[in-house]
Amino acid sequence: MKILRLSAWMLLCLSLVSCQSGPPKTRGEFRPSDLVELIEMDPALRLEIRYATTNNFMHRPVYRQARAFLQRPAAEALVRADESLRARGYGLLVFDGYRPWSVTKAFWDSATREQRDIGFVANPREGSKHNRGCAVDLTLCELATGKEVTMPSAYDEFSDRAFSSYQGGNPESRRLRDLLRSAMEAEGFTVLNEEWWHFDYKDWRQYKILNVPFAAIKQ
């Protein structure tokens, strides 16, 4: 009987997340949102917005527009990181920036239990730093060729190779991963342990969780 009650409680907890219809309420004093489009900040930044295509772990577009936004201080820091890398022959290739909360919810609903437990997807009950406009997914590209470099894993690959501390694979791919990390950390970003491509800006706590679609963001 106790086992049945425990199972029912677990199902209830899961259903509460599945039935959640809006972002969690955030309390405290926050900065006004100032989302800016990255290519407006620096037209030289390269974009490959995977969630506007079928080339992502959802295997379908979840964005109607291939655009990337960040809160202004994070966007300015990203531009500085890109400029520092250009002296080394590389540039940033951005996969994703600000993400409406509804997309985080869709990711959670589609993820496996293992993907949730490891931390590859954010729990919508807590929201994501992407939802605050203070997280960015990216990699490096070669300036001379425009080609994306080879990293220890693919973007959105849910494996040990995706961890920022992974020590296997090709030494050159690890060197490039660490070069990206060094450039981003120098501008106030912190890498996510489970995803070498995911970086959080230092001031993320100062912004609310948002659920604003790209088309409604005023520039």
Written description of the protein model:
This protein has 219 residues and is of the alpha+beta class. The chain has one domain (37-214): Muramoyl-pentapeptide Carboxypeptidase, domain 2 (2-Layer Sandwich). 31% of the residues lie in helices and 16% in strands. It is built from six helices and seven strands; from the N terminus they run αβαββαβααβαββ. It has helices spanning 2-19, 38-41, 72-86, 101-110, 113-118, 171-185, and strands at residues 35-37, 46-47, 69-71, 90-96, 135-142, 189-192, 195-201. The strands form two sheets. A five-stranded mixed beta sheet has the order 2-4-5-7-6, covered by helices on one side. The longest helix is centred in the N-terminal third of the chain and has 18 residues, at 2-19. It is globular, with a radius of gyration of 18 Å. Mean pLDDT is 90; it is low at 1-17.
CATH topology name, in short, is Muramoyl-pentapeptide Carboxypeptidase, domain 2
How many domains is the backbone divided into? Answer: 1
Q: Count the strands? A: 7
CATH architecture: 2-Layer Sandwich
Largest sheet report: 5 strands, mixed
CATH class: Alpha Beta
Q: End-to-end distance, in Å?
A: 58 Å
Continuous helix count: 6
Question: Based on CA inertia axes, which overall geometry fits?
Answer: globular
Helix content: 25-40%
Mean pLDDT reading: 90
Order of the strands making up the biggest sheet: 2-4-5-7-6
Write the layout of secondary structure elements.
Blueprint: H1 2-19, E1 35-37, H2 38-41, E2 46-47, E3 69-71, H3 72-86, E4 90-96, H4 101-110, H5 113-118, E5 135-142, H6 171-185, E6 189-192, E7 195-201
Parallel strand pairs: 2-4
Antiparallel strand pairs: 1-3, 4-5, 5-7, 6-7
